[in-house]
Write a structure and sequence with these properties.
The protein is an alpha+beta fold. It has helices at residues 2-18, 62-69, 98-106, and strands spanning 26-33, 36-43, 46-47, 53-58, 72-79, 84-94, 140-154, 161-166, 173-176. Bound molecules: flavin mononucleotide.
Length: 178
């Protein structure tokens, strides 16, 4: 049973970017800044064969510095129809491999390039949204979260099913009290 839950957990995460309107397209990604947790919504772009979760961001965004200082992070997914929560925890790194960066950069097209082109630095204070200006430079960066633990909780009758899979145990699972 644990094996099949692990497989379906990975499959459901992949549906986040493979299926239109899947609730896992958007997830919550944490970071730590001066001992305080910070959380934000991001778009899941891919999960690699090594279970690395991939996100795009602006290379000037504050989370980049936060992950340099403390790479520990957690990603939270929730599927409202299936009452299914999945948590992925591990370390976040900037992806620097040129081939991979080129591959991901190609997928950013049209209006969405503006997400990485603001003249003002992300998170800087402005008087009005109309003040945002766009330059030519694409400040595109890719973050990869290497998981060391993946946890699934599905609310069901008669028993909720919560289990955890750890990289250190070769992704073998164990059940937890929900
Ligand atoms: C629906 C939605 C999707 C978002 N997707 C991303 C994303 O993929 N990457 C990203 O850096 N920020 C994304 N954001 C913006 C972040 O939530 C956050 O506001 C921004 O990254 C600044 O975060 P930071 O100051 O903690 O770095 C998204 C916001 C929303 C509402």
């Amino acid at each position: 049973m644990l094996d099949s839950i692990f497989k379906s957990t990975l499959q459901e995460i992949k549906f986040g970017y493979l299926k239109r309107k899947h609730p896992f397209k958007y997830c919550s990604l944490s970071s730590i800044s001066e001992d305080r947790p910070i959380i934000r919504t991001v778009v899941l772009r891919e999960m690699t064969n090594q279970h690395e979760l991939v996100f795009f961001t602006d290379q000037r965004s504050p989370k980049i510095e936060q992950y340099k200082k403390n790479p520990h992070a957690e990603v939270l997914f929730y599927h409202p129809k299936k009452l299914w929560q999945i948590k992925v925890s591990g370390k976040v790194q900037l992806i620097k491999d040129e081939k991979r960066l080129h591959y991901y950069r190609q997928s950013v097209q049209g209006a969405s390039t503006n997400d990485y082109k603001t003249k003002q630095t992300p998170s800087s204070v402005i008087k009005n949204p109309d003040q945002i200006e766009y330059g030519e430079d694409l400040h595109f960066a890719v973050l990869g979260l290497q998981p060391d633990s993946i946890e699934s909780l599905q609310l069901k009758r008669p028993n909720h099913i919560r289990c955890r899979f750890k990289r250190a145990n070769d992704w073998q699972g164990e059940f937890l009290v929900p």
